[in-house]
Design a protein that fits this description.
The structure is a single chain. With 412 residues, this protein is of the alpha+beta class. The chain folds into two domains: 245 residues, FAD/NAD(P)-binding domain; 154 residues, no CATH class. The strands form four sheets. Strands 1, 2, 6, 7, 8, 9 and 18 form a seven-stranded mixed beta sheet that branches. Helix 1 runs parallel beside helix 12, helix 9 crosses helix 11 and helix 10 crosses helix 11. The structure holds flavin-adenine dinucleotide (FAD). Flavin-adenine dinucleotide binds next to helix 1, helix 2, helix 6 and helix 12.
Amino acid sequence: MKQCDLIVVGGGASGLAAAIEAGRRGLTVTLLERLPRVGKKILVTGNGRCNISNTAFKDHNYRNAGFARDVLEKFDLRSTVDFFESIGLMLTDDGEGRLYPMSNTAAGVLDLLRLECELLGVNTVCDCKVTDIRQSDGGFTVNGEYRSKAVIVAAGGCASPVHGSDGSGFELLKKLGHRITPVVPSLVQLIADESVTKQLKGLRCSAKISLKAGNRTLASSRGEILFTDYGISGIAAMEVSGKAAELFYGELEASCTAVLDLAPELSGDDIRRFIANRVKFSPESELEMLLVGILPKGIARCVCKKACGLPLNSRISDLKNEDIKTISERVKNFELPLKGTKGFSQAQVSRGGADVGQFDRNTLESLIVKNLYACGEVLDVDGGCGGFNLQWAWSSGRACACAAAEKIKNKD
Ligand SMILES: Cc1cc2nc3c(=O)[nH]c(=O)nc-3n(C[C@H](O)[C@H](O)[C@H](O)COP(=O)(O)OP(=O)(O)OC[C@H]3O[C@@H](n4cnc5c(N)ncnc54)[C@H](O)[C@@H]3O)c2cc1C
């Protein structure tokens, strides 16, 4: 039997942060990773640049924010910057609050995390899927082969399984008596009625998106929308996707609509005035040119076509007051009936997971199994786009490693 103080299950962002923090606090650490290498997902984050954190991160960016608050306050932005500087990585702000490595490469982030583990003597075992965690003699036996005083489950969620997180962390915690809340994909592209989106494929705009089910607004966000052949992508669409997924996964006959405000800076009256001016000053111009001053041409054409049914080569002067009203309404409320999401394979995170009510909010120790901890996405905490999920991974991984180290040291 191979003995150590702490076993970390999963060598992703939270597991690597946990292993480093525990190693620095004098624990002997074994890190078990199911893939041939640790940190595969880190390499693809931020389009290969790794959006490590966000200067605007606050607990309101997270699901189960109340639970996450203590850990995020203790291991805050300053502490995260210091942690990365201590392993030799400088961070830089992209001007909109997103923090990236100064080298602009995720590979550099992973190299330094791995190097620090090596320097601290962390025993990293790859190609080792953990399938069994048992409590025995006041400690744990893992896969019948490894023994430790404490275990941290850092196995991630279900998102992007090719990068390692296949949901097995949930199974491990479930077997040890934990509740798992329903898990759905989040930060994922939305599938919409193709007849509309196909003609807009490749076009981008800055919009406000509201997710509506009947009269209810389930979520809204503002930012980039990218039209694709299957539906919509872009940060604003991804940000409301978790709510859409909850609906599609929960209700068999679920239906919801993405309502896009294509000109959020303008009011309906502003748009009506804009169109009236176009009619006054360019009456001979064709309908397809009506909105090109406020929207990309392809989107402008589609809005006009959908709104008044007139041929796009009609003259602007042919527009009746009623047409002007419908066109401006369509700009503010461009409806896309949704059919689903692109699922876990394309999702950046999963929403749901180990019920946070069964973990201590300061230490992330299980309230059911002593000396068992969980961090990162395996817990039911997730955030929006922009570095918030990795920030939770770093903070929560370090939080449980500190707590485990303190407990083990006090006992010895
Ligand atoms: C394409 C993409 C881009 C992203 N970009 C960003 C970004 O720029 N900024 C941001 O904040 N977030 C981003 N995210 C989200 C972020 O990567 C995750 O939230 C974060 O990695 C979660 O960390 P984790 O340690 O909980 O899980 P993971 O990083 O998923 O790590 C879990 C690890 O555990 C291993 N494992 C799983 N089960 C077992 C088992 N049974 N035994 C042993 N090992 C196991 C896995 O192989 C994996 O290595 C992105 C995600 C994706 C998919």
